[in-house]
Amino acid sequence: MLTSFISTVANNSIYQNALDQLYPVLPSLGSTTRAYSYFDSQMKQLQDLSIELSSVSTLRNDFLVSMRSHDKLSSENLALIVLRNLDILLIEVQNKKTYLEVSWWKLLDECPVTVENLLTDLMNETRNRPEESWKTVRNITYRDFSTLGAGRWLNDEIINYFIDKWCYRSRNTLGFGTFFAGTCLFQDKTSCLTAKRYLTADDEERVVLMWLTEILGSMRGESVPFQPNAFDCGVHTLWHLKHVLEYRGVNDGSHSQKDGLSFTTNMDRSAHINQKKDDLHVNYRTSQDQKIHQLFKDTVKKATRDRAGRTPHSIGDIFPDIQRQVRERYPSPPSTFAPLVETPQPEEDDDEVYDKAMDVDSDDEVDNTEGELLCFPPPNEDQFLRQAMNTSLQELYGADIEEADDLFNFLLPEGDDEEAGSGVGSSSATSSAQPMQRTLEEEDDKMTWQWHGTAGKVLRVDKDVHKQWLGLSSGKKDDAYSPFASQLEWEISHWAVKEKVSQSSFNRLLKIPQVKEKLGVSFDNARSMLNKVDQIPERGGSWFVKQLSFKDRPQEEFTVRYRDPVEAIKALWGDPSLAKDLVYKPAKLFRNSRLKEEDRIFSEMWTGGFWNVAQTHIPFGGTVAPVILATDKTQLTQLSGSKSAYPVYLTIGNIPKDLRRKPGSRACILIAYLSVDKPVKKGLSKTQLKLRNYQLFHQSMAMVLEPLKVAGDPTGPGVEMVGGDGAVRRVYPLLATYVCDYPEQCLVTCTKYGTCPKCQQKADKLHLPTLAEPRTQRWTTEKIQAAKEDAKRGGRSVHSRTMVDDIAGGNYDPFWLGFPVTNIHRCIAPDVLHQMYQGVLKYLIGWVQRIIGEEELDDRIRKLPPTPGVRHFAKGISNLTQMSGTERKHIARVLLACLVGKIEARGITACRSLLHFIHLAQYPSHDQITLSYMITELKTWHDNRDYFISEGAREHFNIPKFHSLLHYVDSIQWIGTTDNCNTEAFERLHIDFAKEGWRASNKRDVFPQMVTFISRQEKVASFDFYQSWASNRLEAPDTSHQEGQESPIGLDVDQEEESHKIGRPKGGKSLRQPDSALLLNLAKNPTEPRKTLASVSLLHGAPGFLSALKLFLNSCLPFGKQAKKATALKGVFPFKTLEIWHNLGLIPPKILEEPEKALVKASPLTIHNKSSRFDTVIVLENDEAESTAVRGCRAARLRVIFRLPQMIKDPDSGFPVKAPAHWPKEHLAYVTWYSRFKSSPDKATGMYKVEPSIGSNGVPLGAVIPLSNIRQNCMLVPSKAVWDNHWDSDNILDECSSFFVNNLQSKYTYQTIY
Known about the structure:
1314 residues; 41% helix
């Protein structure tokens, strides 16, 4: 039964059910002997099975290693599935074994008399067995067992055995100094003068525990040694006895079972010593404290002296040694969970899919809900790690890890009242411990909106689209779902269409007996169900099909499928889900109330110049609908074939840009599929063939967009449109923006390829830092018309004549001819993806590689430290054949950091200016100041770019994409910021509007099927929203996380996370959205629930942690109660362990359109982590700190994330008590500091330089801070010109002594670190 699931993907529940059938729990004892035999047989079978399965881990590791030495085989996935299932089976076998034991004990407890009979039968059965030897237990015979029973535990032989042990085998006088002897034998436990006449029930319980441990240990061949030291007092033995009874074994801390306890060898020795008040105990405590304090000082001095001449981290030589030993022993650690299926390759044009594939923040450890590791290390690995830790701890502290608790476990002497109240020395502690005394909030700039006074006039209020649909029904409940017979019928149809269930699968479902009758649906098959879906009104208008052909070749037909763009605009205008967000009038936004042009702010399209100018050309009270068009040919097939589609998308600028960019918001509509067929080449020259393609595009677009010319005519009546709220306005749709890449920009604007589509600059003058005369629609039209007239008179062809003026004209009219209030050249939007990342940055990377060499650049990129949100290119970048836009974005984040020392300062400045321009161009809001930054960076580029020519990397800069940067400022002022109409947003639509339809088709005559597929998807989405409104549901369906949309970068937030907020950030270099707050997310349960203080200090590379924690606790005391710094540092911790977290989720304020999440790590060396990782952060150091800029902040390395215990041990009694009320309840962090920021950044790189802060004793300076004082993560990169060969991504933060704070790490970082 168990093996039937081995070769298929199974889960825990399958094996649980199988084991429950094979090994059922006994309902009652019945025959006691038979019951025990049955239970014993079950346990032996499970134990044997567990032993066999325990070898799977080694087998899997060997298999994974062998996989790396050959090409991938088709059978490997099946093998990985089998190995994974065996792992699951092992876990369930162990769980089943434990469950049977607990059930058996419970059954025994409920039947004491039956158990007594069972015990007697078993003892009689085993009395004469030769393999049962009772001689191994001294002073205990078989007869002692005959007295055992319900309520009868001890006899005189057992008591005499321990009297003999206490009196004759201990090393002090009569053994009476031991705790158990004094407690069990004498009334006066201290003087041992008056003997007891009888043993109490408590005495018997203690002796029984000790006796059973002796028996069980001897039967297993293990000894439980008697503790001769008077101060051990037998507590060691007592705890081990209790552990045996409760958890079936004596385990050390590293090998304890999941349900068991973990103990160190000294156990509760310290608690006993601290609660004793006699002179002997007090003197011992004092001497130990003095020895430990002196030993610690000597060790630190020795560590600093031995490493003189190197970076004086006192732990710097020890911690890497542990890593080195682990790496040498386990050079290629296998993945804990191997993938079961092959991961599909992402498409080249799908940047969001690439983002998922490039996740750089994957965990090396897997936590369960209890905060423990799911995978327990083999004993030999754990023993090896502990041995390495012991050696290192001995070198650093002069003690084993087991004894390191006591090293710091000294009491805080009660300070003199005058000394505690003086507050001397508390200032420094307080400054590093207290949280910020204010939130990061400032008053908003008094921004002023100046809205157009007459635009957007409401003519009347009519029924919105939902009320119109409601009017079609009779008012009956079931009729509300017409054309569907009932709600259930609608929900089934909705499910089938949205989940893309094939028609054959749906038909098979309905053919199952009684399914159709039980569901009560009226359709018999998928066809009849889809017919009902098709009866839902079209959202964006009906589809039309037209054939185009050339006069001389009528047999060549080119099919265009389209729908009326005005109907598409009506659908967007009247969508109730968008009604609350639409804007109907233009505005001017100012930073203050002066209303000066120099105070203008540009963001949304209605803040730009186009809408404000267009409003003056239409009739009074009219409403402008700025039309945004986008075209982009896309491949439908990936690996084979050449199937492609040429979609045309439409949206309007009245919809906010954040909403337009979300695919699930339905704010963009597909209005056409242009023909992808090519004219036959036979009989045509290259120029003729090219001109026919041009003509085909323009005539197709003219046919599709013809209704817009009439609707937008300012001399006409416009179009009355009903909004989602029922308000009727007179709308004039005007072509405002056209989004496409450079080749299509030339095609759309009839511009000669290689020149600028926005100005008249010649191809050989594109390197000039100034713009030429702008191209205008009138100028281009006049040139084409003049060429046509010349051709009629027998002159040169239209194309040849227009090419003289850098116009790619022909004997046809451009589609935009006759569009009112439109200049097609100013409609061309900036293209961040293709112009900057796939253009400018592509050139820049190539030039840098030629200058410094591909191998050298790869080497530096490989050595950069891993950083949240930044892809780590472990193999460099030279082997990337076809870089996606996302890959180039990540390269742009680290490129500048790798150039120091490799190219001259002039070259670095040139690179920096371009990279800064790329970041500035993507600001979601601009004012005259930020626009001036863009102009300054372009000027810096032009002043320093000759460096690449002098180095032979480039001969000239007549590159259209570089020239296009000069137009960005004007475009932002005209149509709003670049995120209004970036090509990335429209390329994402290819999945929903092209590729999904292609996959759903039968791959023959696909475009009619794709149109039908898209139409049905739109219909069910609209009808679903209507039903939500009609049934008065709480909200429309959430569209922000629909299938296919990627979640933001770095972090998956668990439902059981805790969040911590600091105040809303305001002010700074860029404009901010309201209601912004930094969120800090931690898992509900700690990664390491009970980690000793010594282990934290060692494994987290934090030798100053304990001192910083003492100063922090001292600073938490009320003013006047704080001790001097020297006194506080001698204090004793009232706890031995802390709760430790390894990961911190950061969700920064909403400065950009979407928060950029980051997963910050403070992950130490473990069995599963062969190297540690401690990320760097920006910390709010004092009250001058802001949410942006570096003033009042400091760079730091996050070493420990922890929380103070809620229960501590009372220093007098040793019993657990609640932690002091003045201790902070929030999570804390220990950070090691870098030097404070200087007044200005490095001139060439524009980055601030910092160095690790080291104390005079060689220990890194650090502090314990509230976790909420962490503002953001940051990336540190070496600032040295020469990088050592032994540096790598794991040790570079430890080995390098000088860093730059990389402000190009992300858009958020660029806007906050300056």
